[in-house]
Amino acid sequence: MSDVSLPSPPEARTAAVIPAAGRGVRLGPGAPKALRALNGTPMLIHAVRAMAASRAVSLVVVVAPPDGAAEVKTLLDAHALPDRTDFVVVPGGDSRQESVKYGLDALPPGIDIVLVHDAARPLVPVDTVDAVIEAVRDGAPAVVPALPLADTVKEVEPAAVAGEVEPVVATPERARLRAVQTPQGFDRETLLRAHETVTDDVTDDASMVEQLGVRVVVVPGHEEAFKVTRPLDLVLAEAVLARRRLNDGF
Ligand code: CTP
Ligand code: MG
Description:
The chain has seven helices and twelve strands. The protein is of the alpha/beta class. It has a single domain, classed as Spore Coat Polysaccharide Biosynthesis Protein SpsA, Chain A (Alpha-Beta Complex), CATH 3.90.550.10. The strands form three sheets. Strands 1, 4, 5, 6, 7, 10, 11 and 12 form an eight-stranded mixed sheet that branches. A hairpin with a 2-residue loop joins strand 2 (37-38) and strand 3 (41-42). It starts with 13 loop residues before the first strand and ends with a helix. The structure holds cytidine-5'-triphosphate (CTP) and magnesium ion. Residues 19-26, 33-34, 63, 92-96, 99, 118-120, 227, 229 line the site of cytidine-5'-triphosphate.
């Protein structure tokens, strides 16, 4: 009898790189976003726990704010984390892309699958993490979790001056669009090649792999994997945590 809950091959080793070096400008003044608390625990710790919750993840590389690596190490030591997972902290860079690259540079040999997960998505459920890993194990070189859109999306000619009207250029068919989340999962060699080759500014790692001409596939994302970007997102994140605490009580 085969155990369908165990992805194969089990010997593939997985690491998660967590870019956490951003300032969080859109969240407003305060500490770097990843270090802000959600229900008393730093967002970064929630994100680290979300990755370490997957039994497949043996290493978590945290990319800290450039001047905050020591503080992040102290935080990791101060919070309960699974014993089966190793943790490494490296300083980040000026862009997300650069921060991810520094995280990849810290990967030891023997890692076959790499997840890249935003610290700003602290509440992604472990089932989503496992679904991404499983799709990579099943042979996809690049996997992104994503959801259909609620809003209709317009392409515009961006205004030169903020506040001016913007002409609509096109309305892509909503049913064909997906909002992309993290963790994005990759065959290690493919992701390294993407980061060595692509120099354009991008907002996610999968788009670098797309530029190599390598096929990227989507698996279902999760509502709770939303990105904490603006102040209202903090309210939503704390509400999700409160709901989880209630449900755990039963
Ligand atoms: N990130 C990073 N290094 C940077 C910029 C961003 O590691 N130089 C990380 C952030 O810490 C975050 C993830 O990339 O976990 C996604 O970025 P975003 O949500 O844009 O976070 P910030 O850049 O911090 O926020 P903002 O753009 O509002 O300043
Ligand atoms: Mg940013």
